[in-house]
Amino acid sequence: MLLYNITVGIDKEVEDEWLYWMKHEHIPQVMDTNLFFDFKMYKVLHDQDEGSISYSIQYFAHNFDQVNLYFEKFAPALQEKLRLRFKDKHVAFMTLLEEI
After folding, report:
1. Is the separation of the CB atoms in 40 and 58 below 8 Å?
2. In whole angstroms, how far apart are CA 64 and each of 1, 40, 57, 87?
């Protein structure tokens, strides 16, 4: 099993809007690709600064081929939507982990 983790730092001034968008638009679009079988979303409780808050969004896939297909076919457009909607209001980094 693979875990595709995205950690996002979002400006507090747009946090509620971003959370709504993630829950009602972005995550459902990712899951509609049928390349992940589950997801989780967590709020990071440490290392926060006064102007932003961090979240971890985790998507679970059965194998690397599914994740690779997501990266090639779907991720660029979905990431662009995030960038355009919340430009200069967020930072993100991604990690791919394999269960052992």
Report:
1. yes
2. 8, 19, 18, 30
**Domain ranges for the chain:** 2-98
Q: Which CATH number does 2-98 carry?
A: 3.30.70.100
pTM: 0.91
Here the tokens at position 37 are: 């079988």
Residues 6+ apart with CB under 8 A from 74: 30, 33, 35
Sign of CA dihedral 73, 74, 80, 81: positive
Other C-beta atoms closer than 10 Å to the C-beta of 79 total 15
- pLDDT band (50, 70, 90) for residue 48: low
